[in-house]
């Protein structure tokens, strides 16, 4: 048996694993806005873990709900049997979702929510006798998790190359980031709504009668906080509706208050047919995801041919009682503390603090919405990602946790962050950037 210090665990993305093993960084505790490191330091969480701990860490209400549920009903089969907690959570989610969302399909992660939504889209058309509609459309630089459907519709080209062949019949819209025109725009950029018109081109190429769904993140998070140009999402909605194609918003990051509204669908006033969620649903504490659907999508299955129900899919842990209890306590925490409203109120302060980094060396763009933000750095020629990664390491030494993707620094603090902590986060980042080569 090897000692734990041999670091033989292999759960991280491969590249992250390589970097980590050279320079391991361990968290051993967390409370509210801070992590405690294995060497006893406090680190301000500028990323809500991985965009998930929206109410901060180790919140007693959530911890207690988990403990209580684990002692009362630890598990109930997800098929044929039910338990009231899963239904209660579904109602709590729908209470804060756009009115058109009428049903909840449980999963255990963002990736599973994406697979589920893609399958629901294809099944929806088939249940209505429209079985030729199987094509899927994603977007370049979209991120939809790590499973085959998600990487197929996803816009990370290296993933598509490394793990192909993938799900057939997929096209990608162009990404919405127009660096030159849109740099420094506060909130959503004015330019780029025309990029949605590419959807008409793809539809014309294959015929609408072959296309099941379009999936996009309202704000692409993991690939660098790319905001939707004004009018872009509405255009996608108009075009999909016109052609009978379902629109899926992947709100795994944007859901549960990140943009200053419960869901980005509400923030941008555009209602999709399905919303995929995870992360903030249980405050990142227990793996759980959910796909929200309209009554129309749900009813196609429930009222469709019998065999559709037989073919249906679900997970052993779907809606499991402990995760559901955590979800209820999380949504209650968001409500009781008014955290979505708080995110909206803090957004202008956050925007000013972020944009105070304009002019700092190597900073070439800043983007923000709600309590999400990105600072893009000029890459070092021939060494992409190096500059941002050095900033990440230095920031960690100085007591703040940021996230990097390429040469973009992304931040999405817990919604409980104070103005002083915003100052600390961005002030420290400024210091770091002034020091990084
Ligand atoms: N979709 C989006 C938009 C995401 O940001 C993520 C995770 N960053 C996923 C899906 C995948 O979620 P998970 O890691 O929980 O599988």
Q: Can you characterise this structure?
A:
Its cofactor is pyridoxal 5'-phosphate. GO terms for molecular function: transaminase activity. It comes from Thioclava nitratireducens. InterPro entries: Aminotrans_3, Aminotrans_3_PPA_site, PyrdxlP-dep_Trfase, PyrdxlP-dep_Trfase_major, PyrdxlP-dep_Trfase_small. The mean pLDDT is 95. This protein has a seven-stranded mixed β-sheet with strand order 4-10-9-8-7-5-6, with helices on both faces. A four-stranded mixed β-sheet has the order 1-2-3-13. Strands 11-12-15-14 form a four-stranded antiparallel β-sheet. With 437 residues, the chain is α/β, with parallel strands linked by helices. The protein folds into two domains: 4-55 and 338-435, Aspartate Aminotransferase, domain 1, CATH 3.90.1150; 64-336, 3-Layer(aba) Sandwich (Aspartate Aminotransferase, domain 2), CATH 3.40.640. It has helices at 14-22, 48-51, 60-72, 84-96, 110-127, 148-153, 157-163, 179-182, 198-206, 232-242, 264-268, 295-302, 306-310, 321-336, 339-355, 386-397, 419-435; strands at residues 27-31, 34-37, 42-45, 101-107, 135-139, 170-173, 211-216, 246-250, 274-277, 289-294, 363-369, 372-377, 400-401, 403-405, 408-411. The protein is globular. The protein is 40% helix and 16% strand. 4'-deoxy-4'-aminopyridoxal-5'-phosphate binds at residues 109-111, 114, 143-145, 217, 221-222, 250, 252-253, 278.
């Amino acid at each position: 048996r090897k000692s734990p210090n041999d670091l033989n665990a292999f759960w991280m993305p491969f590249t992250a694993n390589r970097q980590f093993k050279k320079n391991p960084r361990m968290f051993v505790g967390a409370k509210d806005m801070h992590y405690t490191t294995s060497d006893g330091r406090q680190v301000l969480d500028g990323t809500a873990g991985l965009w998930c701990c929206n109410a901060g860490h180790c919140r007693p209400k959530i911890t207690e709900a988990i403990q209580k549920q684990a002692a009362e009903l630890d598990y109930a089969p997800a098929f044929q049997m039910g338990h009231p907690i899963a239904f209660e959570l579904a109602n709590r989610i729908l209470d804060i979702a756009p009115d058109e969302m009428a049903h909840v399909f449980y999963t255990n992660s963002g990736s599973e929510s994406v697979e589920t939504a893609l399958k629901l889209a294809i099944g929806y058309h088939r249940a209505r006798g429209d079985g030729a509609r199987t094509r899927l459309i994603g977007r370049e630089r979209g991120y939809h998790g790590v499973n085959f459907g998600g990487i197929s519709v996803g816009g990370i080209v290296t993933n598509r190359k490394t793990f192909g062949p993938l799900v057939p019949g997929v096209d990608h819209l162009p990404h919405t980031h127009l660096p030159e025109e849109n740099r420094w725009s506060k909130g959503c950029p004015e330019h780029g709504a025309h990029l949605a018109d590419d959807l008409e081109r793809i539809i014309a190429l294959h015929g609408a009668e072959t296309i099941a769904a379009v999936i996009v993140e309202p704000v692409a998070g993991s690939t660098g906080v790319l905001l939707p140009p004004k009018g872009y999402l509405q255009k996608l909605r108009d075009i999909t509706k016109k052609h009978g194609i379902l629109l899926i918003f992947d709100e795994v990051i944007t859901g549960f208050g990140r943009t200053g509204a419960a869901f980005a669908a509400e923030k941008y006033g555009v209602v999709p047919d399905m919303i995929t969620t995870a992360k903030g649903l249980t405050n990142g504490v227990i793996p759980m995801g959910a796909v929200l659907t309209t009554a129309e999508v749900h009813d196609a299955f429930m009222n469709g041919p019998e065999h559709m129900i037989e073919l249906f899919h679900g997970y052993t842990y779907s809606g499991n009682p402990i995760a559901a209890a955590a979800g209820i306590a999380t949504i209650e925490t968001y409500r009781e503390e008014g955290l979505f409203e708080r995110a909206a109120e803090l957004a202008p302060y956050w925007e000013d603090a972020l944009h105070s980094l304009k002019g700092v060396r190597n900073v070439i763009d800043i983007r923000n919405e709600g309590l999400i933000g990105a600072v893009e750095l000029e890459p070092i020629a021939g060494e992409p990602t190096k500059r941002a990664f050095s900033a990440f390491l230095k920031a960690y030494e100085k007591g703040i946790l940021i996230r990097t993707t390429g040469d973009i620094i992304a931040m999405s603090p817990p919604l409980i962050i104070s103005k002083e902590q915003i100052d600390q986060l961005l002030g420290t980042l400024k210091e770091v950037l002034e020091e990084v080569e």
